[in-house]
Design a protein that fits this description.
The complex is a heterodimer of chains A (288) and B (278).
Chain A: H1 2-32, H2 50-57, H3 59-90, H4 97-109, H5 112-123, H6 129-136, H7 151-176, H8 180-188, H9 193-222, H10 225-230, H11 242-251, H12 256-281
Chain B: H1 12-40, H2 59-67, H3 70-101, H4 107-115, H5 126-135, H6 142-146, H7 153-164, H8 168-176, H9 181-192, H10 194-210, H11 213-218, H12 227-238, H13 243-263, H14 265-276
Helix pairs in contact in B: 1-13, 2-13, 3-7, 3-10, 3-12, 8-9, 10-14, 12-13
Classes of the chains: A mainly alpha (288), B mainly alpha (278).
Chain lengths: 288, 278
């Protein structure tokens, strides 16, 4: 009897909190997305798909969704490619690799909200460092964060800068587990350096890449802190991302019903990532 | 460090190129921070003028410190980070032990439910969790910032994997001597998992030191605001565009993590590695 109760007692505190702050809110979000936003003297009531109908007609939503896809596509491949290059460099015999590892990894430990201040200054028209460089090169002045065409790109650069060093760590860990004998064997077979990378190294790094990819996908939904400092989603929602828009709708406009419906979209996206992970990742990962 | 393959080093010419590229990237990566350091340690007149002879000053830090209740923000963040870490370690240890060393019905289901949090993080459930905190009367408290993170799927997973590598014989031997489940956990498992606890602690502390969106939503006063939110409030409303003071405040809020990272660089990198290898 005791043996059967003990594991549940051990699990109880963690499971209770998980249910209270992860499972329950996830389900409640779905339910609330079918309810109206409560107003004075008019409590929330069932309105079916009205929130979703509103969403389909909401141009800002489509803009934020499109922006988020561009944000993901712009951030993920670039930061993964840079992470691989960084890891290879730091793991090789380059001069000063200790300093390089430090330089690459530092953005990871800094608060996004703090570095966003630095980047805001960096992009500032006229005074900012970027402007000083472009002026020295004789290029015209440009307001990178104030222009609808460049703001998202400027945001993506910050995200890549923040993430690449973090992903580098995982590749570094993977590289250090590859026995040097593999490279020696490949060399004996007469493989070139490029062949070794393409045929031996990259396939061996594949599980790491999938793991990093899942993390990167989650981050492309979650990483919005810099918007609060740098753009506030502007100009004209040109840099609005989904989670930021949820924040605006839920906590600036206090439209909680609609915010719940928007959250369902994000949960669906994360569900798709989870499906992808189970389908492609877990085959290689041994949980036992 | 494991040995580096001696073959497939680049040819001398491309070696120079690669070294240059690696250093260029490193310079680009450190540039924003270097820029912030320059601006924070020089008078405002030199914030965008790069002259070797520019006078150094700490006045920007003094001004920033007095312009907002940063001491209180530091205290709040410290309390938050310590509270979250303590809760995560205790809850995670108990849950991981149950999952790693007990056979019981529903174990896989429980584990699956826990792992779900890796995907559906509290970070995106802000609307509902805010409602919950309101209902519990916890809005605008430090506890409310930490509570959704107390049970960490990542921590439970990491510890479970570690506990599974502990030889069962050690467990059995302790039990034969009459130790209870909890005693075995504390005497056998926890000491053996020390490096993992350290690794997890570094990851957790840096995550919660840096967390912003949820604390922004759930706090509303100086007494509860963590540094990240305090910094945002400070730099967006009070200061106009006094960059010297803003960068000083920015460096100040990042300083403990940055200094910690510089001192324990190897442990930090290895912790993140350890946390990444599953």
């Amino acid at each position: 009897m005791r043996a059967r109760v003990t594991p549940w007692l051990l699990l109880l505190p963690a499971l209770t909190l998980l249910v209270a702050f992860t499972h329950w809110p996830a389900l409640a979000t779905i339910w609330d997305s079918f309810l109206s936003t409560p107003k004075k003297g008019r409590p929330a009531h069932f309105i079916g798909l009205d929130n979703y109908r509103g969403m389909v007609e909401d141009e800002v939503f489509w803009q934020a969704l499109t922006n988020n896809v561009i944000y993901a596509v712009g951030t993920i491949p670039l930061s993964i490619a840079l992470a691989i290059a960084m890891a290879l460099w730091v793991n090789s015999r380059l001069a000063g690799r200790g300093f390089l590892r430090l330089a690459y990894f530092t953005p990871t430990v800094l608060p996004m909200i703090a570095v966003a201040n630095i980047w805001l200054f960096f992009y500032t028209p006229q005074y900012g460092l970027l402007e000083q460089i472009t002026q020295a090169l004789g290029l015209p002045s440009h307001n990178w964060l104030g222009d609808k065409r460049t703001v998202l790109g400027a945001i993506i650069v910050v995200a890549v800068w923040k993430e690449a060093g973090f992903f580098m760590i995982f590749y570094l860990a993977a590289l250090q587990q590859i026995p040097p004998s593999l490279a020696e064997a490949a060399a004996l077979e007469g493989a070139s350096r490029a062949q070794y990378f393409r045929r031996v190294l990259f396939p061996l790094l594949m599980p790491t890449t999938l793991f990093v990819l899942v993390n990167a996908l989650i981050n492309s939904v979650r990483m919005v802190d810099h918007l609060f400092v740098m753009t506030r989603g502007g100009p004209d929602n040109a840099s609005a991302l989904l989670l930021y828009y949820i924040y605006q709708v839920g906590f600036s406009f206090w439209d909680t019903g609609y915010a719940a419906a928007l959250t369902v979209v994000v949960l669906a996206a994360l569900g798709a990532v989870a499906f992808f992970q189970i389908r492609f990742l877990d085959r290689r990962t041994h949980y036992q | 460090m494991t040995p580096i393959a001696t073959v497939f080093q680049p040819a001398p010419a491309s070696r120079v190129l690669e070294t240059a590229a690696a250093w260029l990237l490193g310079a680009l990566w450190i540039l924003p921070l270097a820029y912030a350091v320059w601006t924070a340690f020089h008078p405002a007149a030199f914030s965008t003028r790069f002259e070797l002879g520019a006078p150094l000053t700490l006045q920007n830090f003094v001004n920033a410190w007095h312009a907002a209740p940063f001491a209180r923000y530091f205290l709040n963040t410290t309390l938050l980070v310590a509270m979250v870490l303590a809760a995560q370690l205790v809850l995670g240890t108990l849950a991981a032990y149950a999952l790693a060393r007990f056979e019981f019905r529903g174990r896989d289901l429980a584990f699956g439910l826990i792992l779900l949090q890796l995907m559906v993080m509290p970070d995106v459930l802000i609307v509902e969790n805010y409602r919950t905190m309101n209902a519990l009367g916890l809005r605008d408290t430090i506890v409310a910032i930490g509570l959704p993170y107390f049970a960490s799927a990542f921590g439970i997973f990491l510890l479970r994997q570690t506990f599974k590598t502990v030889p069962k014989e050690l467990d059995d031997a302790a039990r034969v001597e009459g130790a209870s489940a909890l005693q075995v956990l504390l005497k056998v498992y926890v000491p053996l998992a020390k490096p993992v606890y350290l690794a997890y602690a570094l990851v957790s502390v840096s995550y919660h030191w840096n967390n912003f969106l949820w604390p922004l939503i759930v706090t509303n006063s100086v007494e509860t605001r963590p540094l990240t939110v305090g910094l945002q409030v400070f730099s967006s409303t009070d200061q106009g565009v006094d960059w010297s003071i803003i960068t000083a405040a920015t460096l100040m809020t990042s300083a403990p993590l940055l200094v910690g990272f510089l001192l324990f660089q190897r442990q930090f990198v290895q912790s993140f590695m350890r946390a990444g290898i599953r």
